Every structure is written in C-alpha cells, then in structure tokens.
Amino acid sequence: MPGPLARYGEEQRDRPARADPGGKGRGARVTLWTRGAGAAVVLLAVTGCTVDSTGSTGPDEPTGTSASGGSGQSAGGAALAAVDSLVVKGRAPRTGYDRDRFGSPWADTDSNGCGTRDDILKRDLKDVKFSDGDCEVGSGTLDPDPYTNEDVTFVRGRSQVDIDHVVALSDAWQKGAQQWDPSKRIALANDPLNLLAVDAGTNRSKSDGDTATWLPPNKAYRCTYVAGQVAVKKKYGLWVTEAEKAAMERVLAGCPGQKLPSGGSPTTAPERFHAD
Predict the structure, then answer these.
(1) Strand pairing partners for 240?
(2) What does the pLDDT look like over 21-41, one tens digit per residue?
(3) pTM to 2 decimals?
(4) With b meaning 16 or more CB within 10 Å and e meaning fewer, what string describes 140-170?
(5) Is 59:238 a contact under the CB 8 Å cutoff?
(6) Which whole-number Å values give the CA distances from 200 to 91, 129, 156, 160, 203, in the listed order?
(7) Which of 18, 195, 202, 257 might form a disulfide with 53, Cβ 3.0–4.6 angstroms?
C-alpha cells in the first residue's frame, strides 16, 4: 500500500512555503518553441515564457479537462488582463487550516465512478495501464513533467508523480476559503482546473507557495502555470496579495497573448459530500 504522501501530494503542504523566486530546481531545462514570427523567439529568450495565443490544450497547459469530459477550452480573454479583476488583500492567518476542511482527498465529485486522482492521472499521463478495470491507473509516463520538462515514470505504490493543486489549499484557506461553505472547498480541492500531474519532488518543494514565492523550474511553462493560478482564483473569488499580483503581472507581461484557461467542475460539490 502506498503511504499517504505518495497518494496525496497535497499533504506535504502543511510545511511553510519555501521561496524560490529564481525558479531553480532539479533537472530543469528550458525548451523554446517557435509558433509564429521571429518576434516570438525574442520574447521567449528574454522571458522564458511560451507564447500561447491559441489556448491550445495538452501537457503544457492546465486545461481543466477531466476523464469525465470537463471543458478545457480557453475563456478567450488574456490572462494578464484578468489579473486586474482579482481582489488584493493581505494574507489571512493560517489558523484553523486542515486538509480535512476540504473534504476527503480525491472525492468522486463528478460521479463518474473514479476518484479525482485517477481522473487526473488518466488525463495527464501517456501510455496509461490500469490496475483494475478502466479506473485505477497502475502505470504511465508523465511525458514531459510540466514543472521540470523531464519525463517521469508513474508506477502505483512507487509513484514519483503527485497531483498538484495549482492553487495550494493552504494558500486558498488564507485568501478566502476559510469563509466558504464546505461544499465550495470540496469543489476547489477536486476541480480539474486546479489539478495537474507533476514530478513529486518538485511539487513538494513548492509547498503552499503562491506566484510570489514559487515558480516552476521549467521557465517555458511559467506563463501557462501563472495563467492557471489566475483562472482558479478568478473562478472561485480568491484574493491575492500585492506581492502575488505584482509577480503575476511580471510573468504574464512577457507573454501578453497567454489565454486564461477555463472549464473544470462547478464551484459547489454534490450534497452527498461533507467536510469538517
């Protein structure tokens, strides 16, 4: 049986966030993609961001697409412009935070018969093989891991893959979620828009960091990553700190064509789910 940390990478986030504004990490490589005119190459070289004006889906974009058929289409607006719509406030105390406040980990809130963790593994891994039926993922490959741009092998029980909450639950708790009805917290914890299969070690170095304190070592993924955080905070009405907003704007200014992802699940969970 895998231990709780192998199964639920989020539990690592009870530790304080470790600042990593430089985005240094294990095995990081920068991949520069050219999707248009030569000017895009200059942007990438300067900012380390991938310009994505198409809202395309795939392993380099948090699509919010679950195995049950959630939408991963772009909202059509620029992520940079959406930052201005976020409320700016100070970080509230972490007092009272507990993972159980967000319900049982990986609840089947979309009622497709599979837990959320397996839904995301099926969505994000390649060469998936199942341990039981077509639900429990036994193995696969993260090809590549968006945070490091390295390939990572997933084997159930010996996993080097975590499911990351793009907006960490502890961070959400301190920026509005502690005031929510439990149903909304359960929805956030299981929303495919806020979930991504990633390298376990890199995810745990993130802890509960926000954009101001942590960015993926893979610089080419930073624009997509920050756009995902903006999308989740906008969808759920979570606020940002001054430093966080400035960091979001700084990253997204280098890729003004980056689209805001949309989709995922409703912002309230079915009534049968409960949280402490």
Answers:
(1) 88
(2) 333 333 333 333 333 333 333
(3) 0.74
(4) bebebbbbbbbebebebeebebbbbbbbbbb
(5) no
(6) 27, 20, 13, 5, 5
(7) 257
